[in-house]
Amino acid sequence: MEVEDDSEDYCSKEYDDDSEYEEEEDGLLKLNKGMKFETWELAKSYLDEYAKQNGFCFHKIRRVLDPNDNTIVRR
């Protein structure tokens, strides 16, 4: 998973199977634009833990837009 950032100043870090979660001094994970993950499973694992620490959950969605009028044709 890659989060695009339009600004010039962004944080980027790659995570692989052997990496530890990036934690703040207080033990909480941090999430920044531009973070890169080797696989969706690594990203999901990191985001699950981040969400759990911050009291929310997330889910992945997919939608297909009609190229003519940008309406959603499939979810």
Automatic annotation (TrEMBL):
Organism this protein belongs to: Rhizophagus irregularis (strain DAOM 197198w) (Glomus intraradices)
Protein name, entry field: FAR1 domain-containing protein
Region (Disordered): 1-24
